[in-house]
């Protein structure tokens, strides 16, 4: 997520449309601000999970929440970053295109996110 935001921030400074860099369009800045915020929330949650894991206190439900939510969040952010790249975002020469494919797989492997939600629901509801 953080890497996607970083490379997209650089891209929108370099790429021009209608004679000005993409970063000068308010929509570009708003979308990136949203991505940065979500990535920060994700980082705080992930770091908390790592801390709990090191202390031997990471429970299964929180682990399932982390796998589910962080991978969904990652997909949302990378997808928006592809959008900000325009057509180049679809070209595999660009790292963001490969990130998009990789982030999509994360919702499937290591147990699909539907199974993560089942684990959360079984334990908590
Ligand atoms: C890139 C990649 C790398 C992988 N690496 C490994 C690896 O190293 N080791 C390994 O063991 N496996 C690996 N896998 C396999 C991966 O773990 C499985 O693909 C994953 O667990 C989903 O299983 P499945 O493909 O059989 O899908 P299925 O179980 O057939 O699921 C199909 C759909 O049905 C849904 N579904 C299934 N059961 C339920 C249910 N009870 N409730 C609600 N929805 C349900 C799923 O969420 C999914 O949307 C990898 C997969 C990929 C894509």
How do the SSEs run, as a string of H and E?
A: HEEHHHH
Bound compounds? flavin-adenine dinucleotide
Largest β-sheet summary: 2 strands, antiparallel
Helicity, as a percent range: over 70%
Could you name the ranges where pLDDT drops below 50 across 5 or more consecutive residues?
A: none
Strand order of the largest sheet: 1-2
Strand content: under 5%
SS class: mainly alpha
Q: Roughly what is the average pLDDT, rounded to an integer?
A: 97
First and last CA, distance: 30 Å
What is the helix tally? 5
Radius of gyration: 17 Å
Number of strand segments: 2
Shape: elongated
Kindly describe this structure.
The chain is mostly helical. It has helices at about 1-15, 25-55, 60-85, 95-105, 115-125; strands at about 15, 20. A two-stranded antiparallel sheet has the order 1-2. Helix 1 runs antiparallel to helix 2, helix 3 (about 60-85) runs antiparallel to helix 4 (about 95-105) and helix 3 (about 60-85) packs antiparallel against helix 5 (about 115-125). It is elongated and about 55 Å long. About 25% of the residues are buried. The model has no long low-confidence stretch (mean pLDDT about 95). The structure holds flavin-adenine dinucleotide (FAD). Flavin-adenine dinucleotide binds near residues 105, 109 and 114.
Task: Tag the structure with descriptive keywords.
elongated, mainly alpha, 74% helix, two-stranded antiparallel sheet, 125 residues, binds flavin-adenine dinucleotide, single chain, 5 helices, 3% strand
